[in-house]
User: What shape does this take?
Amino acid sequence: MLIKRIISSIVLISIVSLVIFFDWLCALVVTLFIIAGLYEYFRMLEKKGIKIYKYFGIGMGIIIPLSIMLKFEPTKNWELLFIILALFFLILMQFKRRDNSGVIVDISTTLFGILYVSWFFSFLIKIRYLPGGLGYLAALLLITKLGDIGAFLVGNSWGRHPLIPRISPKKTVEGSLGSLAFSVLTALACRSFLPFNNGQLLLIAIGLNILGQLGDLSESLLKRDCQVKDSGNIFPGMGGVLDEIDSLLFTAPVFYFILARL
Assistant: This one.
């Protein structure tokens, strides 16, 4: 399992290292990750017996990152247009149903997937397209994912006290603190990429790490509810796409809003 995890990590790092230098290629890869993440999300819900609109949800989910990639911005909050349209069409689809049971659950879970996976992860594209976006995106990925690695390494070596066993039995308090330390040290190492002083950078690193851990726990909560161990198996030893991007789903939007206010 460890060997598979190492190989999958090397493959992922290689992909990211290659595509991050080209904004359009980075946006395209993010879109592909969104497609795979949405598929895994909807498949988990199907296993739970929820009648979701998988292909509609994936289709709407693709539009959001592609619109950012193509710089489609007719209004300030143009992404909300797609969310409203998605809700409108989901309601129209209900008129063809033979019964009314589960309508609210089916609509809300489909819309949640579009927001949670597509919209949140699309902020990586927005960050990359900012002036200086290459350094910003690299810093975000390093701070967030090295925090994940820190949690794994410290938790496996010294973890003794469960964090929230009801949600994720393997996560420990020691691993959480190790994750925080790794993120803070990484942020300080990325000082030259970012327009913040050391005090601001420390606060941002702590905030991003907390959000990243919450993102990880949130996905674990979804998997618990759907009674699955991993969202998928596309990365041997590591799980699915959602398992790899869960922490970024929370850190990317917040980091973008911080940068957008500069």
About this structure: The CA atoms of residues 88 and 248 lie 28 Å apart.
